[in-house]
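Researcher: I need the complex structure. Ligand is flavin-adenine dinucleotide. Inputs:
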Amino acid sequence: MPYDRCDRFDCDVLVIGAGIVGLSAAYALTRAAPGTRVTVLEKERGPALHQTGRNSGVIHSGIYYRPGSLKARYAVRGAAEMVKFCAEHGIAHEVTGKLIVATEREELPRLHALVQRGRENGIPVRELGAAQIAEYEPDVRGLAAIHVGTTGVCDYGAVARHLAESLTAAGGEIRYGAEVAAVDRRPWGVAVRTADGAVVRARVLVNCAGLHCDRVARLAGDDPGMRIVPFRGEYFDLARPELVRGLVYPVPDPAFPFLGVHLTRGIDGGVHVGPNAVPALAREGYAWSAVRPRELAGTLAWPGSWRIARRHWRYGAGELHRSLSRRAFADAVRRLLPDVAEADLRPAPAGVRAQAVLRDGTLVDDFLIREAPRTIHVLNAPSPAATASLPIGRQVARRALGVLAAAGV
Ligand SMILES: Cc1cc2nc3c(=O)[nH]c(=O)nc-3n(C[C@H](O)[C@H](O)[C@H](O)COP(=O)(O)OP(=O)(O)OC[C@H]3O[C@@H](n4cnc5c(N)ncnc54)[C@H](O)[C@@H]3O)c2cc1C
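Model: Output:
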């Protein structure tokens, strides 16, 4: 293949990953610049088979995130857009509202700080005393709570499938069973080789590979400066869903805002309880038995993994204990919902979060999108990235179109 020139491109923009982020980016490209040739490569047999199809299905309000951060801006905007998108396309969804409940006195200052943060992010919240909690959730107990009206639930797998259909209807292409194994970047663009030997040439590459995004960045020759450390979230279904009407969360730990056992009534009417977060032994390790020695060795070779372990071992030990003991898990649930018994918890499918970790052990908090020559990498898109996927997709598409314009296309 010539180094400085290419006579035949298979597409203008090549997106790796048919999760909700890659599909949103591809969809946004066809909307912002009709006629742009977009191809998506996905290693699985269909869309949304990893994080997008294994999450809690919550449309997050944006209350937790630092004002001005991408997470805060995109979640608030994205939540409203996601509700509208689902309504317009007949996708199951509901705006249920959510309670954040303080069960210990020491949590009260953090609950008040959340009220403040919510107001800064433009989110309507109502403060509740202990007795008022029952107006929303008769079986939940706490010292105080806040009610956030804009939180909802939806089926993100269905959203992703709809995006995929819209993309192909607009002339885009999705190739399933196409695992990207090598990336060759040239001055004219990229040539990508899949595991079965096919080569796709594109002017711009967009990396939305979720749990594998750092690997794909390295295949392209870029040092992403982070590694994905996979955390498995383990869940149960509540055998007595009538105990919970909507969404009930504890006050988050500032070090791990995505953790803390919560209760979520999904669009199917079932109540999901969890997560418990433990290190996954493979990037797509949905059970303790799923071990990939090479991936595990990669995680252990990253200094940041050890620094997290040293800094947070006490917290991690609690999570491990709850992973191995249903009784300990039920104790955690009972802080919010005293009537729950161990027998009310039935194991449900787990999910694995792609969390970017820096060399010094810092968990990257905000969404992280990086550009390299002819390439856009999405390197950190954890929760609430499903909620925020439509604005994230537009941002990625804008950048890809900028690269195309700079190349004179
Ligand atoms: C347990 C859990 C609960 C969550 N709850 C919520 C929630 O309630 N609300 C919310 O907003 N967010 C939630 N999230 C976060 C949300 O699910 C993710 O932020 C979002 O799905 C990320 O989408 P993605 O497209 O980046 O990743 P993914 O959905 O993981 O998609 C990446 C895709 O890339 C493909 N891929 C990877 N490598 C290659 C390769 N080499 N070649 C080809 N294809 C490749 C994968 O097969 C995959 O399909 C949760 C996440 C988890 C794990």
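Model: Summary of the prediction. The first helix runs from residue 20 to 32.
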